[in-house]
Structures are given as C-alpha cells and as structure tokens.
Amino acid sequence: MRTWLEKIIGQRGQGIVEYALLLAFVVGCAAAVFSNNGLANGIKQTFSQVADTLNGNHLPDIDETGYTDEEKQDKQSMDDIARAVEKAIRNEDIVFTDGYTAFLVVQKESNKSFVGYLMERGVIHSADEAPHLDGNILDSQGSRTNNGTAISGISWPAGGKPDNFSWTAPNPNGSVSMTDMWGIVGKYGSNGLSSQSVKSSTSGYYGVAITSNGNNSYTTTYYRGARTDYEHNRGIYSNDAIGSVTWSK
To answer: Rounded to the nearest 5 degrees, what angle is found at the Cα of 104, between the Cα atoms of 100 and 105?
Structure first.
C-alpha cells in the first residue's frame, strides 16, 4: 500500500515539476520579449512589420545590420512617429499644402521653450514628460514657417481641429503648429510622447520628415546625426538622412 502511494505521489510530483518548468520557460520567453536585448527587438520588429503590412503603413527600409540595441530602439521610435503622422494624413485629420514638410525631431538636449508651448496647449501635462521634442514645418524651399505658434502649410480639415483631439488649437486660419504635430503622435503613436528620447550614445538627435509631393503623394524620410540639438535656421540636414520611402494616400 505504501509503495503504491509513494508511486502515485511521485508521478504527481513529477507532473508538478514539469508544469513548473514549462511555466518558467513561458515566463522566460515573456521576459525576453519585453526586455531590451537583441531577441526582443527582433521579435518586436517582426510583429511591427506584419502590422505595417496589414495596415498599409509605409516606412523607410533601413538596414539595421550592425545597429546597437539602443540604435534599434531609436529607429523603432522613428517608425512610431511615421506611423502616427501617416495615419493622421489618411484619416484627413491634417491636410498638407503641396511642397510642405513636417519635421519632427527628438534631441538629447532639453528644449524648455518648446516644452512650454506643449504644456500651454495641453499636449503634455508636466515639464519632464517630453523635454526632448522639437521640430519645424518647412515650405518647398526648406525655409522655416513654424516655431510652435506661427501659421504653417499644414491645416485642420475645414479649418477646425477634430473633436476627439483633447489639446487646444488657438492658431489662426485653422493652421497646424509643431505642437499639434506632436499631439498627433501622442494620440496615434503606440508609445506616446514620454518615451521619445535619444537612446543611442552615438547620436545627438533623430527625426522624421513627412513631405507632401502633390497629387496625394508623400515622402517619409528618417534622419539621425551627432548634433545634440536641432538648429531651426539650418532646416533639415540632408547629410544625416538614413532612408526614405514615397507613398500615396
């Protein structure tokens, strides 16, 4: 009798151990997926590529061979920005004038003046929520047309901000400012704004430019460079471009 009980208990004990090992394997895989190692980035990138194909998103084809994990994270942030702006364009939540470019920049240095604009408009709620954001709206000649408040070549449809956007839009003539562009990323981007920072130690900034070519054609270009802040009077740094794609609405 005792031998039979010991055998049953032993079998059950073995089953419990097997289940424990299986659970540990699943937990280990989950930890790998959500960590910042190379396997995690590879899995995330694969799922993102499938989602982009299904959703019709268009992102520059960047060769990440030799990229560090931090550089891959920065690239994923650029993907998130590009997806958000493209979705807003497709939903007609914003309207680009032909030849205009929205250049959204994340820089290593904090940008206190722009943070003030973002807080004033209600896009962010605290000064440390997104201190590294910057950008500009450029005309067809690459000249600055917007510094957070000025009239630009991007507007709300019919001159009015969509009701489901929570931040204010006091700009005249229905124009969209750079703060509005970041608000769109915060609304449509999967990572929001607080995660937007430069992770790579070799980069000072990264940015995404969306240009309207006319006839519902757009070009998305990624930039990355050593400068730690974005100089408005220099516009887009052509030498820092790392890839682009042209797509139709």
So the answer is: 135
pLDDT bin (cut points 50, 70, 90) of residue 51 is: very low
Give the separation between CA 67 and CA 64, rounded to whole angstroms: 5
Give the predicted TM-score (pTM) of the model.
Answer: 0.77
Angle, alpha carbons 212-217-218 (nearest 5°): 50
The DSSP result for the chain, as a single string, is: -HHHHHHHHHHHHHHHHHHHHHHHHHHHHHHHHHSSSHHHHHHHHHHHHHHHHHHT--------TT--HHHHHHHHHHHHHHHHHHHHHHTTSSEEPTT-EEEEEEESS--HHHHHHHHHHTS-SSTTSSTTEEEEEE-TTS-EEESSSS--SEE-GGG---TT--S----GGGB--HHHHHHHHHHH-TTTTTT-S---TT-SEEEEEEEEEETTEEEEEEEEES-SS--GGG---GGGEEEEEEEE-
Averaged confidence pLDDT in the chain: 80
Residue 164 tokens, joined: 């489901």
The answer to whether residues 144 and 117 touch, using CB atoms and an 8 Å cutoff, is: no
